[in-house]
């Protein structure tokens, strides 16, 4: 089918790479039962055949070299295509396929590029449509004109701005029965740039080409989606009687396609026809480092990556962002509810944002939470959720004048500890039970695979909420301890608070402390060898080879490390790459940490976190007892039993317990993320085997919803759109990290306001205007 020159648009599953975006959308509409005029499409194979046999390949390759800006003569491109005939067999195929349509009357010949109707760039008005074509000879001329429009200067410039590569592009061409339209126009199922509860209809009498070309000013209507009530946006004459039916049709198409749609329609003889649908794109051409999933910042909203970069670190591809962001956002909202925090009307509602493919917290939302908390302050709320204060009042709190607020925050956290403990325990135990099932994903039909994924995801939502609550409790109780110590040890308060609450080792294999168990494994499985001998004698990339050279001992150690790596699940982000996908991460850490661990005294290597905390607490108590201020205060207050020691020990124990709960929740979430990753990898394998993805890594360029829809057989995301997203992610990764605090788009200078008269409106297809400039 990939080499088929011409095919009917009959709902049989035409792909964008085969027939272009417009034809693939029409084919989906037919398959879904929507009214589409009869049509055939010349495939991308037909275009490639024409270019190859006509000798145009060299000319097209030279276009970019001669005219890198894409601002050359459009007429020269048209002449080049019109000057060569259509090769014999291809011409015969076109004549046979279109003869039946021409018997019914004139046809429309319409371009359908493989890079068209993308989620981030519609290409509206860039390619040709020719109407009322009445003969086979005229069809052949129109087809060549559509092919030529792929290389028009404006289309090439548009592709560059949208980050779409010219390499491998092709042009399908639709030949479709003309509808003798009494009315025609465009339906936007959501008003672009306006109220999303309204739809916008632009209508003209006669053919819709008058509207698209800008030759006629349309009648403009707004329709309430909920009630179907029609509003005329300007003073109009006649309200077409079919607008209610048109909106019903449009809403059905929107639901089936999964996003707001820009629908071209025609009305004739009492029937509505759909001649095109594409996703609405109203944000314009994106920056080179925006893959289409970044956040549009709210007016006056401030953002910060602090406090979220541990959970969602680095550049996040669309799949990981669309999986993780909703769950983490919901975790914060649940915590707000548990603490009785009410967000004011009109305050920012989104807790998370994504900028340059990196996650950030909506600082304005947290500050609003502070305003609604009795006795709360910006700085203390920021400390609780971000780990440190970044507001202007931070110095006041740091100086000790915010102590009461900090203690109140700690008390609130302690009151919620029981609930957090239960949630973390339940979540961790549930994860262990799921892993014990050991389900073989390769045997599951796609429906059951996705059902299993839904169960995993339900549990992950609960895990994220537990981690956020534990992290907030840890920050609050740690701050309370810090403030209490500040009275006695002043500038050393933070250092002592860290020592007496020393938390468990970092999750995964990223930190040296986490590799202690693997050091023990090495000592057990490779007796008589120098510690980490096979890992430190050469580069980490050849560690496996050197270990296998040790014989059975090395093989046993490799198996033990593999089992440990699988147990840790995802490395950093729920559903992200796992430790066992690329063992080089493990070997690099072992090689880096091995010498230090081997050089440490045995008692230090084997000491527990708890014993280190107790030792630090005893040192602290000794320091306090030797302090004259500590002794004098006890005498002046008449304390027989020193309650301050009990209070400090209790605060340290509470902070340690929350820290432990946070790490346990995080560890279990990443373990569960490893199970979700197995499902993602299996889904990618199936899509690659079906030819819907070029390679398994491309799965991360999909959104969560796109992955599921593609597994269920719906239209795949085009290779051109995936390439654009990939280029944007690479550009984002090469950019600077996000600043600690920013408003608007980070690193983007606001344009100065334009002076003089301003023409207001919203973007549409190309037209003509005349006036002084």
Mean of all residue-level pLDDT scores: 78
User: Roughly how many Å apart are the termini?
Assistant: 53 Å
The major beta sheet can be summarized as: 6 strands, antiparallel
The helix content is 40-55%
Number of helices: 29
- Label the structural class: alpha+beta
**What general outline do the C-alpha atoms trace?**
elongated
Tell me the fraction of residues in β-strands, as a range.
Answer: 5-15%
Global Rg: 32 Å
Largest sheet, spatial ordering of strands:
9-8-7-6-10-11
**Regions with little confidence, pLDDT below 50 for 5+ residues:** 344-348, 393-411
Number of beta strands? 15
Would you mind describing this structure in some detail?
The protein is 51% helix and 10% strand. With 773 residues, the chain is α+β, with helices and mostly antiparallel strands. Strands 9-8-7-6-10-11 form a six-stranded antiparallel sheet. The two termini are 53 Å apart.
